[in-house]
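Worked example 2:
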Amino acid sequence: MLSFLTGFSIGLSLIVAIGAQNIWVLSQSMAGANRLVIAAVCIGCDALLIIAGVSSIATLQQWIPPLVPLLTAAGVLMLLYLAYGAAQRAWQGSSGLLTNSEVQLQSTGKTALTAFAITLLNPHVYLDTVVLLGSIGNAQPSPLWFTIGACLASLCWFGALTGLAPKLKLLLSSPQRWRLFDSTVALLLTLIAGKLALSQL
């Protein structure tokens, strides 16, 4: 259960941080675009990358034993960096998921291609899912449950963005609510980074 909760919490924190993808998904969904297609592409890509990251890190550890400790240390630094960014946004109070109300609707095929491009051409996606989640997941007592938790976080987030887009517009565009959210994310990432650092001692 601890591995599952860790995967879900870290996965959700990292997915939310990918601003460009979230803005496009929410904008298209609020305009009545192919929401099911968008959700399926984003969730599917995340799940495949997370699974590839956790499984490949385990294999690479057999070939290069020092690799996982190094990646775990890099993961700790990345978590602290992300926590600092979230704390800074919370302090400044300048966050908020702003969307463009003028959205040009596309065909189902073009929507899917655009979703693939926005997801897979973003370098942060690979850093977060393959490298960071992969190294952290491999250090958990149960990498499988960590993977399930991280994939479920993607399912919940993009399911909410696409399915509840009209109701989420006001909520996600509020800087005050995002200050509270960013504060929680900063605290959570700091605690997880500390736990990972202690596990290597």
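The chain has a mean pLDDT of 80. Residues 138 and 198 are 15 Å apart (CA to CA).
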